[in-house]
Amino acid sequence: MGLPVIEINFKQKAGSIIERSARGIACVIVRDDTNSTAGYKRYKYETDIKTTDYSADNLAAIKRCFLVAVNEVIVINVPTEAEFSDAAAILTMLKYNYVCACEVDDQQPLANYIRTKNSNSKGKKYIAVVTGITTADSMYIINVKNAKVTLADTSEIVPMVKYLPRLVSLLANLPMNRSCTYYTLTDLVDCEDVETVEKTLDMLIDEGWLCLFNDDGDIRIARGVNSLVTITSTETEDMQKIIIVESMNMIREDIYGEYKNNYVGKYKNHYDNQCLFISAVNGYFRQLQLAEILDPEYDNHSTIDVESQRQAWLDIGRTDAADWNADKVKKMTFKSYVFLQGDIKILDATEDLKFDIGMQ
């Protein structure tokens, strides 16, 4: 009877993708001896937080998550003298979208953990927001340049590590139909000026830094970029944008989840069944075009990866596979494997304007 459940699920997921992107989960790691053992708590509202659970400094940092409407905030607490591995052990058990740590010494370990975590995860990907680290260069690591900010209500100067929860919560709850570029942080009155004689704001952004800047009294995010700077054939310039990576993550997670939950083990590996799954994916892509996640002017599609499937047969000694035409390869499914490939164009947000006006 085909794959109606997968088709319906894909339509529902596509229809809700912007809403879901605005309801991510922010995770915050604090070091606090108020509780002697490591653990974590989930919060939906600021009023859910017991003030006796954290030091005043950490409490203020956590409450910055609630300057936007949040879906959920997870706070991991470890003692101040604990190893970062204690926090990582808890982090491994949790599902979240963005994570930060509120201590300087935890910035690079968190980035290293996220890099390893994502390399081992085929479906869901995780993003760390850190500050001032020297080894980043990843689409999954956002590296904030400013070392401090000034609060609008108290004029207090706050180190960036204690302000990261605000940025993590913002990114976790920002819908996919807009980017964080030029987002105004109304709770700030000033931020550290990161420009120098040698380095302009543009240069720092090109080096993979997320920068805040003072725009005539408004504190804004200069450009929504991650720390990726090494461009390859598989990690392109587009993937330096936070909004592009967010779209990639959700699309990957949707397709992987539907395949794992509703396809694996439930259908014979026959060409017709593969085509039904491909048709469901392509229907999902069409829905994403309507939601302006994918470019409707582009041929967004998935299909059988003919060359990978051909190579699988060649690798076990079927030398005649070299002469099969594309249709023959597609119909010669290989053992339990489904070889697919896709080609999509994710829409970026409107951020740059070039407007030449002629004068007579």
From TrEMBL:
<comment type="similarity">
    <text>Belongs to the myoviridae tail sheath protein family.</text>
</comment>
<dbReference type="Pfam" id="PF17482">
    <property type="entry name" value="Phage_sheath_1C"/>
</dbReference>
<dbReference type="InterPro" id="IPR020287">
    <property type="entry name" value="Tail_sheath_C"/>
</dbReference>
<protein>
    <submittedName>
        <fullName>Phage tail sheath protein</fullName>
    </submittedName>
</protein>
<feature type="domain" description="Tail sheath protein C-terminal">
    <location>
        <begin position="235"/>
        <end position="356"/>
    </location>
</feature>
